[in-house]
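Hi F.,

I've been meaning to write this up properly since the lab meeting, where we talked about keeping a consistent format for the predictions we share between groups. The idea is simple: the sequence comes first, exactly as it goes in, then the C-alpha cells exactly as they come out, then a line or two of notes. No screenshots and no reformatting. I'm using this chain as the first example so we have something concrete to point to.
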Amino acid sequence: METTTLVQIFGAVYGLLAVIFGAFGAHALKKRLTPEQHHSFETGVKYQMYHALLLMILGFSFDFNVALEKYMGYSLVLGTFLFSFSIYGLVLSSSKGNKMRFLGPITPLGGLLLAVGWFLLILNLMYAI
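Output, unedited:
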C-alpha cells in the first residue's frame, strides 16, 4: 500500500477512534475512573485527535516519495499508537486494580516518536524552501 494512502487511512481511523474513545471516557467511564485517571484518559484522546488531524493534513500535503517524508509519516503513526493506546491501557487496567505496568515505558517511547515526527516535518519544510 502506498505510504500516502496509509497515512490518510491511519489519520481517519485515529480520528474516528478518538471521537469514540472521547465519548466512552466522558460517559461510560466517568463513574469508574478517578479524576486523575479521567484526566490521563482525556490526554490520550486529545493527543490522538491532534495527530489524526496532522496525519490527514500531511496525507494531502506530501507525496511520501522520499525517505524523510516516509520516516515522518511512520513516526507519527506509530508514535500516536504507542502514546495514546498505552495511556488507555494503563488507565483502564489501573481502574480495575490490575495496572499493566509494562505499558509505562511505552508511553514515553510513543511521545519520543511523536517528537521525531514533528522534527522530521520541520526538516521537510526547511528542505522545501
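Notes:
The chain has one domain: 3-128.
The chain has four helices and no strands.

If this format works for you, I'll send the rest the same way.

G.
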